[in-house]
Specification:
Blueprint lengths: L1 E6 L6 E9 L4 E5 L7 E6 L5 E5 L8 E5 L4 E5 L3 H14 L3
Antiparallel strand pairs: 1-2, 1-7, 2-3, 3-4, 5-6, 6-7
């Protein structure tokens, strides 16, 4: 669990959200805040087919993308190390 910044689906703005990765359901749920009271969305990692980390030296925060058949989630982490941890965790669950 932790904060990531995601690009909004309709309004293309970056929004800070609390993300929870469930190893039981192999899914990701995101909330407005860490208290997990207001759910904003989520996705099933078993439906994802790729997770790509984007290395752009001019970007302030590292970006990575989770690709599903229905949507590509564009996410930013607070550091390169944090992005690597999230990407590794997501990739470990992807179907082979």
């Amino acid at each position: 669990s932790g904060y990531l910044i995601k690009l909004g689906k309709l309004h293309k703005t970056w929004l800070r959200r609390w993300f929870v990765l469930s190893l039981v359901t192999k899914s990701v749920t995101y909330f407005v805040a860490e208290d997990e009271r207001v759910r904003k969305g989520g996705f099933d990692l078993l439906e994802a087919f790729n997770v790509v980390q984007q290395y752009t030296p001019d970007e302030v925060l590292p970006i990575f993308h989770v690709m599903t058949p229905y949507r590509t989630y564009h996410l930013r982490a607070s550091s390169l190390d944090a992005a690597r941890v999230w990407v590794s965790a997501f990739r470990a669950i992807l179907p082979s």
